[in-house]
Amino acid sequence: MRYLPLLFLLATVIGAHAQVPEPATGQRPVPEEQWKKAAADLDYSKDVPKPKKERPPTDAPAPGFDAAFWGNIAQVVAILLAVLAIGYGIYRMLQEPRNRRIARDGAEITEENLEAYLHETDLDRFLRDALARSDFPQALRIYYLQVIKRLSESGAILWSKEKTNRDYLREMRTHLQAPDFQGVTRTYERVWYGNAPLDATGFARIEPAFKHLLAQIAPPPVP
Question: Do 174 and 150 belong together in one domain?
Fold first, then answer.
């Protein structure tokens, strides 16, 4: 009981402290004339945020670019290039020599390899080309190859690209046209291998001997 006065005194002090009002925290009013005077020199126009510039997307077409138009132009150009390529290919085909032939093994038959494909080409075509360009030694060579081909087809000789003119002369020793064949062989070797000059006049003088022998050789037997 002796503590009751002390407790009463403590409760009184706490209650008094709780009832003390707190100081106001509101805004202090400012007279209108004083506010106008203070705000006269203030410029709020600079505080307005500037609008952001919108950047176009990186994949967007450039201004004025018409994708459909240029796409059509590219398509037309591609078609023109294809037509030109086809035309050039046809032109090259037409420019190929008429005597161009492909052998059975896939090789192209030319003047350089006629001996290897003697029975697979038309020697008359090569002869006409050589005469057209006045290549008389080449024309004489083709005449001689015609003689060899005709002798092979008639059975007078056994043709082989490994054989030489000497081999064919030995096979023709007992043949009726042996003297004529020996004569054209000497002429051919003198011009082709001996590099003897041959012009139009000289060719006209020796051509009849080759034509005569070709006419005398019996045609190949009919199968």
Answer: yes
Angle CA 159–161–163, to nearest 5 = 70
Q: At 102, phi and psi to the nearest 5?
A: -110, 125
Domain count of the chain? 2
In this predicted structure, the answer to whether residue 26 has a pLDDT above a threshold of 60 is no
Is the pLDDT at 208 greater than 90? The verdict is yes
- The distance between the two most distant Cα atoms of the chain, rounded to a whole number of Å, is 174
Contact present, 211 and 142 (Cβ < 8 Å): no
Contact 153, 220 (CB under 8 A): yes
Span 164-180, average pLDDT: 95
Range of the domain at 194: 110-216
Average pLDDT for 38-46? 58
Helix axes 136-154, 178-192, angle to 10 degrees: 150
Entry pTM: 0.55
Distant-in-sequence, close-in-space partners of 210: CB < 8 Å, separation ≥ 6:
140, 143, 144, 146, 147, 184
Q: Does the residue 58 lie in any domain?
A: no
Same-domain pairing of 155 and 89: no
pLDDT-based confidence at residue 170 (cuts at 50, 70, 90): very high
Residue in 191, 189, 155 with CA at minimum distance from that of residue 172 = 155
User: Do 78 and 154 lie in a common domain?
Assistant: no
